[in-house]
Design brief:
16% of the residues lie in helices and 61% in strands. It is an alpha+beta fold.
Length: 178
């Protein structure tokens, strides 16, 4: 009898050792690729079942969705954030995402003065603080679909003179957990 309990206990422990919990996720904001177009790539590390830290890189970043003017953006941004999932099982459901973001690059717009055309550049270097909300669905324990919206406050006076100080953003994140 003792051997049977020991065998069952060892089997359960070995099954637990083979159970896989995913601690990492790579992601792409597919909505930005279609609407802006820019490329927003991200990585998320799960601290436990209901919280994570994430980082995102936005290449060809455009300022918000409604820029004032018809110029050319040449910017990149880096965002780091913390995600708290309200459903405490496997980081799914509603979440909140406070974040810090920095953007660097320039915005160039063609201007005309006294019948002479010239390029006016705005340095987009900025520090942004914001918060977002979203909802995460996970399929087959690996594939993620997560719509979200966030809003951030830009703390660059040069950028705020040319663009909005408050920046809304939304997206649909497609991800893979591993």
């Amino acid at each position: 009898m003792k051997k049977m309990f020991l065998s069952i206990a060892m089997a359960l422990v070995s099954l637990g050792a083979f159970a896989q919990t995913y601690k990492n996720e790579i992601k792409l904001n597919i909505l930005n690729v279609i609407a802006r177009p820019s490329i927003e790539l991200g990585y998320e590390y799960y601290l436990d079942d209901n919280q994570s830290v994430d980082g995102e890189l936005v290449i060809l970043d455009k300022f918000s969705y409604w820029p004032k003017g018809d110029g050319k953006f040449s910017a990149t941004s880096i965002k780091v954030g913390y995600n708290y999932y309200f459903d405490s099982s496997d980081a799914v459901g509603f979440y909140i995402n406070p974040f810090l973001k920095t953007r660097f690059g320039k915005y160039t717009e063609e201007k005309t003065k006294d019948n002479t055309k010239y390029d006016e550049e705005t340095n987009l270097g900025a520090f942004i603080i914001g918060v977002g909300v979203g909802y995460t669905w996970v399929f087959n324990s690996k594939f993620v679909v997560a719509p979200y919206a966030n809003i951030g406050r830009n703390f660059s006076s040069a950028v705020n003179e040319r663009f909005w100080a408050v920046e809304p953003n939304a997206g649909v994140r497609l991800g893979f957990r591993f």
